[in-house]
Amino acid sequence: MTHSHGNLLGEPPATLLPATPEADAELAQGATLAEVAAHHPTVSAVWAGLAEEALHRPERALVDTIQAYAYARTGYHRGLDALRRNGWKGYGPVPWSHEPNRGFLRCVTVLASAAEAIGETAEAERCTQLLRDCDPTLAI
User: Fold this and answer.
1) DSSP secondary structure code for residue 99 in this structure
2) Closest C-alpha among 77, 68, 84 to residue 116
3) Burial (CB count <10 Å: 0-12, 13-18, 19+), residue 50
4) Res 7: pLDDT
5) What is the distance between the alpha carbons of residues 18 and 134, in angstroms, rounded to a whole number?
6) Residue 57: helix, strand or coil by DSSP?
7) By the number of CB atoms within 10 A of the CB, which of 1, 6, 119, 131 ranks highest?
8) What is the pLDDT of residue 80?
9) Which tens digit of pLDDT belongs to each residue from 67-121?
10) How many whole angstroms separate alpha carbon 68 and alpha carbon 84?
11) Region of residue 6 (phi > 0: left; psi between -120 and 50: alpha; otherwise: beta)
12) Of 100, 102, 107, nearest to 127 (Cα)?
C-alpha cells in the first residue's frame, strides 16, 4: 500500500483573488484608469496601470516616479487587503498564472522599481523578496 502525502511542510494553498468584472467592463468600454480607480478603489490592477503609466512616461521626471510609487503603494495595500480577505496569512503562493492576482503582483513590481529609483533600497529589496515568495517564477 502506498500513501501520497502531498506537501508535508504544510505550505498553504495558493491564494487566488476573485475577478473584477465591473472594473474590467468599464475599462473595456473606454473609461480611463483614473475613472475606474475612482469607481473601484479596491482593484489593484487599476492602481498598477496608473503606476506603470507614471513610471514609463517619456522623459520621466522625479514627480512621475513619486506618482508611480504612490499609485503602486495604494494598489499594494488594497491587494494585501484582498489577499487577506481570501485567506492569505502573509505567506504562501500568490501565482502570476491566476490573472486576478496580477494586479497586486504588478503593484509590487512597480513599487520595487520606484523605490529603487528614489534610493529606497531596503524597500526595493523587500518587494523583490515578496515577489519571489509569492511566485518563484517571477523575475524582476
Assistant:
1) G
2) 68
3) buried
4) 53
5) 17
6) coil
7) 131
8) 98
9) 999 999 999 999 999 999 999 999 999 999 999 999 999 999 999 999 999 999 9
10) 24
11) left
12) 107
State the residue for C-alpha cell 495604494.
Answer: 74
Which residue type occupies 79?
G
CB 17 within 8 A of CB 96: no
Nearest CA to 65 among 53, 80, 79?
53
Residue 109 host element (H or E): helix 102-117
Grid cell in block for residue 75: 494598489
Dist CA 69 CA 47 (whole Å): 10
**Mean pLDDT across the chain:** 93
Place of cell 487577506: 84
The pLDDT value recorded for residue 10 is: 72
